[in-house]
TrEMBL record:
CDD domains: HAD_TPP (cd01627). Pathway: Glycan biosynthesis; trehalose biosynthesis. It catalyses: alpha,alpha-trehalose 6-phosphate + H2O = alpha,alpha-trehalose + phosphate. Belongs to the trehalose phosphatase family. The gene is LOC4818164. Its EC number is 3.1.3.12. The lineage of its organism: Eukaryota, Metazoa, Ecdysozoa, Arthropoda, Hexapoda. Removes the phosphate from trehalose 6-phosphate to produce free trehalose. This is Trehalose 6-phosphate phosphatase. It is an enzyme of class 3 (hydrolase). One of its GO terms (biological process) is trehalose biosynthetic process.
Length: 273
């Protein structure tokens, strides 16, 4: 069983090649699987205010067009929301932590939640809205999972509201993961960003993908750890975290989101220039 541990850090563009010599090879297919918030776009005060840095976006567009490269964005956001924010043709998108997947041709894979969980979800949203949607905190209802945002709640009230929100989520049988100034309530099913990543790779490249495809995954959050764990030994993953003590399943830690541009430039140097 793989364990989380403190991962080696990468601090610059040069260090990608130094620390992963020869991992990328332009003769090999490459799958790039990326989280959105905190990874492609820096964290902003409100989910509607995020955008990708210009150079990162430009590089990502170039990579997505390359015939040897496959791009998927796997986000906790609702599917349409993340599609609208990234908006790159030919990309596969997964929303709601992988529960909904859409391929470039418009075909989909939706994880069907049991009726009881759907009912619990509706009840949970109602109770959260009644009891803890106040003092600046709000519920982002994404139909099958939700995010309880408390960034704008006064410090003196945050802990109490957070605690109550977590209790409500757990009481309705949902998982409650800590995120950036938010709690992610996810359904209690055996499907997450890791399962979604493996599913997408198998659909795209077939059962033998581990032999034929190089994989790069990057994410910044606890929900991304599911993909990092699933891809251990099958690809290379990067956890964005400023805290040097963070425990992760990723192969490397990137101390700042800005290093995502370098990660993509490293790939572009190998595949494009
Ligand atoms: O899996 P991701 O693509 O990283 O999405 C995770 C959640 O991201 C969003 O919330 C977070 O980012 C916001 C914008 O930077 C920030 O204001 C908030 O504090 C963060 O928690 C999004 O709103 C959620 O739906 C996603 O699940």
């Amino acid at each position: 069983m793989p364990e989380k541990r403190v991962a080696p850090v990468i601090n610059s563009l040069e260090e990608f090649e130094q620390k992963l010599p020869g991992y990328l090879n332009r003769d090999k297919k490459l799958a790039i699987l990326l989280d959105y918030d905190g990874t492609l776009a820096p964290i902003a005060d409100n989910p509607s205010a995020t955008h990708m840095p210009v150079e990162l976006e430009k590089t990502l567009h170039k990579l997505a067009k390359h015939p040897q490269i496959f791009l998927a964005v796997i986000s906790g956001r609702g599917l349409r929301d993340v599609q609208a924010h990234v908006s790159i043709d030919g990309t596969t998108y997964a929303g709601n932590h992988g529960l909904e997947i859409e391929y470039p041709d418009g075909s989909r894979h939706d994880y069907e939640l049991p009726a009881e969980i759907k009912k619990n979800y509706t009840d949970m949203v109602r109770e959260l809205k009644e009891k803890v949607e106040k003092n600046g905190a709000w519920v982002e209802d994404k139909r099958v999972s939700l995010t309880y945002h408390y960034r704008d709640t006064p410090v003196a009230l945050k802990d109490e509201q957070k605690k109550l929100a977590t209790e409500i989520c757990l009481r309705h049988g949902f998982r409650a993961n800590q995120a950036h100034e938010a709690i992610e309530a996810k359904p209690p099913v055996n499907w997450n960003k890791g399962e979604a990543a493996l599913y997408i790779l198998k659909q795209k490249f077939g059962d033998t993908w581990p032999k034929n495809v190089r994989v790069v995954f990057a994410g910044d959050d606890t929900t991304d750890e599911d993909a990092m764990r699933a891809l251990q030994g099958l690809g290379r993953s990067f956890r964005i975290a400023s805290d040097a003590r963070v425990q992760t399943f990723a192969d490397f830690r990137l101390p700042q989101q800005a290093l995502m541009t370098d990660l993509l430039k490293w790939i572009a140097h190998v595949y494009i220039s």
